[in-house]
Amino acid sequence: MSAIRTSISTTARHYRPSQTAVLCLPTAASRRRLSSTSTQEPTSSKKKLKPLTETQKEFLSSALRVNQAGELAATLIYTAQTPPLLSREPHLRPLMKHMYDQEAAHLSTFNTLIAKHRVRPTALYPLWSVLSTGLGWSTAMLGKEAAMACTEAVETEIGGHYNAQIRTLLEMVSEWEAEGYEVGQELKELISTLRRIRDEELEHLDHAVEHDAQKAQPHWLLTGVIRAGCRGAIWVSERV
Amino acid sequence: MRPATTTLSRRAATAAITATRPSQAQLLSGAAIKTTTTAPKSRYITSLSRPRQMQQIQQTSSIQSRPLRKYHSYEHPPPPGPFSPTEEAILSAAYKHVPEHGFSLESLALGAREAGYLDISTTILPEGAFSLIRYHLVKQREALAARTEALFRVPENQKHVSISEKVELLTWERLQGNAQVIARWQEALAIMAQPSYIPSSLKELAKLADEIYFLAGDVSVDPSWYSKRASLSTTYAAAELFMTNDHSPDFRDTREFLRRRLGEASELGSAASAIREWIGFTATAGVNVLRSKGVRI
């Protein structure tokens, strides 16, 4: 577990543009658009912002949509976990409140961003609400260890997911910088918001491991199923 | 003099046609790049590693054709509009002939001639008369944003304009955009209802509803996002149809019709939310009563 945790934090910290340069090769579609737009402003000084390509817009929309869905689910998981968990382990109250408050703040951040950038929210909103409440309640009924294993599994997936988004955004930014374009405040802020939220999610992961997440029986089955579910939900929310 | 201009305009028309297609070389280079990006993919690399990213980029490009709502940037320059400069020139000239000749090929031909092209150059608009209708829809929708400030000016005695009032004002403003071509609008609706044009027509309707709610300042991002837009779309479509048969001065009857429909929709919406709230309250209260009785749930 600790190996995974360190790899999460190191991949982002030791980000080098040279490594990712290989990865910013545009797809056929974006290359086509790129060549058609680049004819307009070859002489521009380093003041201009490049128009977002369709692929980049698609990426940003689906990223914001899936993040909102994810934070909604996280808020509901903690909401559902709290009462059954606290009736057995009252000393966990400050921890649960701390984690819930952070998730609620993330959710309102993405709600604002989604409305501001006119992104369609996920159509499966009611489904995610029901599933995440069910997941939170049932793991809390299984006991403290299972509830913490649930947090561990979810936050591992979410941490990796945020890292992947940040990496793509940094590639976009470095591509623009290489071409001599300015990088707007909008995207800079988005990247720093995502970084902050990722760090907070990984902090929840640490808390879960500290509170006996790995003593859950059977740990591999619980985390395996929940992580697979998370990946599936992320995949669907990026599209629908 | 005439032959010279003809060849010129023909050249312009063919240039406009070829400009929309990517060249063979670009396509090939794009394809070559695509194959190189699918390089190493080990089972043991976790979700935190790079190959996942490549997949993601490719996946996002594969879902491009679907009409998803796109990210709206406030800083980056907007993408070019839906019409190329040639199309814009022909359509804007043709649009002036709509009240007289309708949304027809005749108007398009007249417009093309006025814009300095041959009559035949309307072939760059493969959708024929529908492209003229879409031009009307797009231009009217885009014009709304510029008029919002004047529309929402708060009267002295009133505190503020609510979102539902703003929605009504904007919808009415958009309906008035049809007034100039109202005599021809029934035939336009008939063309829009042709099976091959239904998807584009519905997409335009959805964009209009989204634009109205955005301009009205609505920020709901839960399932009501969908229900609001769906109900506004049906109301707008009904009001539009009503307006084609309205002979009252200044379309007063249409205005009343619109007000009634929007009122009904908001009543229905508030009833639904009251029921939802009641169910939610009862369920939570029930669970809490059980918990207080010592049931471990």
Automatic annotation (TrEMBL), chain A:
Binding locations of Fe cation 2: 103, 155, 201, 204
Annotated GO CC locations: extrinsic component of mitochondrial inner membrane
Region (Disordered): 30-52
UniProt keywords, alphabetically: Iron, Membrane, Metal-binding, Mitochondrion, Mitochondrion inner membrane, Monooxygenase, Oxidoreductase, Ubiquinone biosynthesis
Subcellular location: Mitochondrion inner membrane
Binding-site list for Fe cation 1: 71, 103, 106, 201
SUPFAM superfamilies hit by this protein: Ferritin-like
Pathway membership, UniProt: Cofactor biosynthesis; ubiquinone biosynthesis
Cofactor annotation remark: Binds 2 iron ions per subunit.
Enzyme Commission no: 1.14.99.60
Gene Ontology terms, MF aspect: 3-demethoxyubiquinol 3-hydroxylase activity; metal ion binding; oxidoreductase activity, acting on paired donors, with incorporation or reduction of molecular oxygen, NAD(P)H as one donor, and incorporation of one atom of oxygen
Enzyme's top EC category: oxidoreductase
Keyword Protein transport: no
Pfam families: COQ7
Membrane topology reported for the UniProt record: Peripheral membrane protein
Predominant location: mitochondrion
Domain of life: Eukaryota
Reactions accelerated catalytically: a 5-methoxy-2-methyl-3-(all-trans-polyprenyl)benzene-1,4-diol + AH2 + O2 = a 3-demethylubiquinol + A + H2O
InterPro entries tied to this protein: Ferritin-like_SF, Ubq_synth_Coq7
GO biological process, one term: ubiquinone biosynthetic process
Cofactor(s) recorded in Swiss-Prot or TrEMBL: Fe cation
Quaternary structure annotation from Swiss-Prot or TrEMBL: Component of a multi-subunit COQ enzyme complex, composed of at least COQ3, COQ4, COQ5, COQ6, COQ7 and COQ9.
Record family assignment: Belongs to the COQ7 family.
Summary of the function given for this chain in its UniProt record: Catalyzes the hydroxylation of 2-polyprenyl-3-methyl-6-methoxy-1,4-benzoquinol (DMQH2) during ubiquinone biosynthesis. Has also a structural role in the COQ enzyme complex, stabilizing other COQ polypeptides.
Name used for this protein in its record: 5-demethoxyubiquinone hydroxylase, mitochondrial
Organism per entry: Rhypophila decipiens
Designated gene of the protein: COQ7
From TrEMBL, chain B:
Gene Ontology terms, MF aspect: lipid binding
Location (main, coarse): mitochondrion
Listed GO biological process terms: ubiquinone biosynthetic process
InterPro entries attached to this UniProt entry: COQ9_C, Ubiq_biosynth_COQ9
Function: Membrane-associated protein that warps the membrane surface to access and bind aromatic isoprenes with high specificity, including ubiquinone (CoQ) isoprene intermediates and presents them directly to Coq7, therefore facilitating the Coq7-mediated hydroxylase step. Participates in the biosynthesis of coenzyme Q, also named ubiquinone, an essential lipid-soluble electron transporter for aerobic cellular respiration.
Protein's name in the database: Ubiquinone biosynthesis protein
A cellular component annotation (GO) from this entry: mitochondrial inner membrane
Protein location: Mitochondrion
Domain COQ9 C-terminal as annotated: residue spans: 198-268
The keyword Mitochondrion appears for this protein: yes
